Amino acid sequence: MSTLEIKDLHVSIDTEQGTKEILKGVSLTIKTGQTHAIMGPNGSGKSTLASTIAGHPRYKVTSGTITLDGEDVLAMSVDARARAGLFLAMQYPVEVPGVSMTNFLRTAKTAIDGEAPKLRTWTKDVKAAMAQLRIDADFAERNVNEGFSGGEKKRVEILQLELFKPKFAILDETDSGLDVDALKVVSEGVNRAHEAGNMGTLLITHYTRILRYIKPDFVHVFVDGQVVEEGGPELADRLEEEGYDRYATGAGAATIAAAAQA
Amino acid sequence: MTEITTEKARIGAPSAQPFINGFTEEGESLSPINSATSRAPLAGEAVKRHSHGGGVGIPDSSRAGRLTSYNLADFKPLTGLEEDWRFTPLKRLRGLHSEVLSGAAPTVTVSGPEQVTVETVARGDKRIGSAGIPEDRVSANAWENFSEATVLTIPAEFEADTEVTVVIEGTSTEAAAQHLVIVANKFSKAVVVLNHQGSAVVSENIEIVIEDGANLTVVSLQEWNDDAVHASSQQAKIGRDAKFKHVVVSLGGDLVRVTPSARFTAPGGEAEMFGLYFADAGQHLEQRLFVDHAVANCTSNVLYKGALQGRNAHAVWVGDVLIRKEAEGTDSYEANRNLLLTDGARADSVPNLEIETGLIKGAGHASATGRLDDEHLFYLMARGIPEDVARRLVVRGFLHEIIQQIKVPALEERLTEAVERELAVTNN
Ligand SMILES: Nc1ncnc2c1ncn2[C@@H]1O[C@H](COP(=O)(O)OP(=O)(O)O)[C@@H](O)[C@H]1O
Ligand SMILES: [Mg+2]
Q1: Please, where are the H alpha helices in B302-382?
Q2: pLDDT tier, B31 (very low <50, low <70, confident <90, very high otherwise)
Q3: ipTM of this predicted structure
Q4: Which residues, 6+ apart, have CB-to-CB distance to A248 below 8 Å?
Q5: Do A56 and B21 touch (CB under 8 A)?
Q6: Between chains, do A160 and B383 touch, taking CB under 8 Å as contact?
Q7: Listed residue (B205, B151, B197, B150) closest to B177, CA to CA
Q8: Which residues lie across from B255 on neighbouring strands?
Q9: Is the pLDDT of residue A49 over 70?
């Protein structure tokens, strides 16, 4: 049983107009076996939260903490965070030219496990995982994400999730840009990883559609860098009907305190 | 964004698109404008002993207007202001441009299939001058001073199943002249690897004749010791329906300046020119190539890729492609990509495309210089891969595109290892 704990996180970025605060005090606790959905309008800071957890250098933490089973995540390098068990499925996965998927997956798996996977079983595992996510076998020979369609990139993110077996998965709008079939395939992948029983999930989404396939235990509404409302799955249904308009930007936080997690 | 793009082209707007962000193979098809009317003599059947440029109507700046001559005296002493020397630190040429090249030439040792003949010949041999004519003072100085030449002949219709390896081993740093002739007779097929190693200060002329229907690959490896200075003119004359692949790999040496050219003399020819260089601190690696589409229906494809690291690592790439009026049906593309791994390194990249006929299939160029992209590194590191391993993955991948063109497995493996060694220097 692991715990990822985010406490009163404030994050800024440097822009041409100067420093801009994006996250304005975010607190969130996720435990193994739980699925937390973060829902919010575009520009509310969802990707900022995800990237900050992963350690992207653009985002500066000005105050607050992130810990994984009590360990200071903010003190870890990007690669150390991944090896500690954090996985970010990116909203816009990067194309890495010149590096084949096969080579990349094996190198990453070796780094995460601290030893090279057994070649025979590994190759079999990769093939099986690709087949389940309906990724063409020849993608293995292609360069990481290079020339992949939006949907293919998302599937490859989930492929990594299944192969690397992280303690916590942060899925940043993995559902955007997917048609219904792809959405099902991807959701099944996340559910498989979850059912193995050793993972907690932070599911970031703009739409409620994916929540038909991945059932959240908790829903957090995110507006203007803050959690403005929290509840169970029923909150998602309400958002589906009412949208985000109810939460006037900036106003929400004053009325609804970002309650500490159970 | 961490990208720098430099580009200069004689015709057409710069195709300054991001390459590091996905290395998209941009480039453009250029419509032919400025059509010059006269033509210049070339080395080959129509070679004159001496020519001062292309004559009426051809500007000095055009590649067609370049002075070519077998006589050193026809070339003025270098000042460094010349267009084709402006990037080269003349002081570090160790006299290749100014001294009599009387040092002992690097030794030449050839191994390969016994059908391939190797001769050491005197200056008067009729094959000397069959594919090349000096295009600059340093090359002319070597032509004036070489005492004997090595001639390799791949017999007609012979298809070599192993490569021909020519070890060119420098043992002295007295300025020297070297001359090699490689002749691929009709319908032959072979790979010739020139392995430059040891210590030398040498100006070298290599003439390459690819007769009708022949298929020749020449790989020129510069794995010199740190003190070597090497100027190498490698001129190829390509016959009807012949295929020529040229691969330049420059890793070692203090100053290496390779000037390859591919000249089509009959229709149906195909030239592929690849280059890989890895410039370390203080190293000057220069490549200036010339593709001369002088006849119809030939194809050329050029790709040079370089990585640079360390203070005053300097790479120069100039790609002159000339599509003459006669060269209808030409299909041509050239590109250069540089990856700056550290601050303090500099890459100059200049594609020059001149087109004198509208009746071509295609002509394009691209050039970009970028840094190792932080987003690539972030993606790999976010998967647990340590930074140094991630850097190596990206650079290795970048350069592998050239290595895999060589198609000699043992050599590809050796070069991959050589690149690994260069990379290891970054990370300590
Ligand atoms: N690199 C950046 N430069 C300038 N503004 C940025 C940058 N990244 C994010 N932002 C701004 O930060 C805010 C939050 O962005 P983001 O975290 O991407 O939101 P979301 O993922 O919820 O759409 C937005 O106002 C966005 O414009
Ligand atoms: Mg986002």
Answers
A1: 374-381
A2: very low
A3: 0.94
A4: none
A5: no
A6: yes
A7: B205
A8: B229, B284
A9: yes
Q: How large is the average pLDDT for residues A246-251?
A: 64
Q: Tokens 């840009």 label which residue? A: A177
At residue A98, the pLDDT reads: 81
Rounded Cα distance, B13 and B363, in Å: 13
- Listing DSSP states for B92-131 in one string gives GGTTTTTS---BPPPEEEEES-TTSEEEEEETT-TTTTSS
With residue B419 as reference, give the H or E element that holds it: helix B409-426
Specify the amino acid at residue A210.
Answer: I
Which of A159, A151, A157 is closest to A132 using CA atoms? A159
Kindly state the tokens that stand for B166: 């020519």
CB pairs under 8 A between A and B: 84
The model's pTM: 0.76
What does the alpha-carbon distance between residue B195 and residue B206 come to, in Å, rounded to a whole number? 13
The verdict on the CB of residue A48 being under 6 Å from ligand 1 is yes
Distance B370 CA to ligand 1 centre (A): 25
**pLDDT, tens digit (0-9, with 9 covering 90-100), for B59-80:** 556 888 899 999 999 999 999 9
- Residue B244: helix, strand or coil by DSSP? strand
Contact A82, A112 (CB under 8 A): yes
Exposure string over B291-322, b if 16+ CB within 10 A, otherwise e: bbbbbbbbbbbbbbbbbbbbeebbbbbbbbbb
Collapsed DSSP state (helix, strand, coil) of residue B321: strand
How far is Cα A5 from Cα A69, in angstroms, rounded to an integer? 8
B230 beta partners? B202, B256
Nearest CA in chain A to B392: A99
* B273 in Cβ contact with B291 (< 8 Å): yes
What is the rounded average pLDDT for all residues in chain B?
87
For tokens 């550290």, what's the residue?
B342
Place of tokens 């939260």: A49
- Predicted confidence at residue B362, as pLDDT, reads 96
Q: Is the CB of A252 under 6 A from ligand 1?
A: no
CB count in 10 Å sphere of residue A115: 9
Chain B residues close to A57, C-beta within 8 Å:
374, 378
Six-digit token pair at B186? 């009709």
Residues 6+ apart with CB under 8 A from B309: B278, B279, B280, B281, B340, B341, B342, B345, B422, B425, B426
Tell me the CA–centroid distance for residue A180 and ligand 2, in Å. 20
Q: Among A10, A14, A38, A44, say which to mutate for ligand 1: greatest number of ligand atoms within 8 Å of CB.
A: A44
What value does the mean pLDDT of chain A take? 92
Residue with tokens 């949907």: A151
Answer for the pair A169, A193: CB distance below 8 angstroms, yes or no: yes
Report pLDDT digits (tens) over B131-147.
Answer: 999 999 999 999 999 99
CA A47 to ligand 2 center in whole angstroms: 4
Preferred mutation among B1, B341, B381 to probe A, highest tally of A CBs within 10 A: B381
User: Other C-beta atoms within 10 Å of B387: how many?
Assistant: 15
Taking the C-alpha atoms of residue B21 and residue B373, their distance in angstroms, rounded to an integer, is 7
> What stretch of H or E contains A131?
helix A119-132
Number of helices followed by number of strands (H, E) in chain B: 4, 19
Q: Is the alpha carbon torsion for A81, A84, A86, A90 positive or negative?
A: positive
Q: Which residues of B touch A103 (CB under 8 A)?
A: 393
Model confidence at B102, pLDDT cuts 50, 70, 90, reads: very high
User: B15 forms bridges with which residues in the sheet?
Assistant: none
A199-238: pLDDT as tens digits: 999 999 988 999 999 999 999 999 999 999 999 999 998 8
Report which of residues B424 and B81 the model is more confident about: B81
**Biggest CA pair distance of chain A:** 57
Phi, psi of B381 (to 5 degrees): -70, -30
Contact B323/B300 with Cβ under 8 angstroms? no
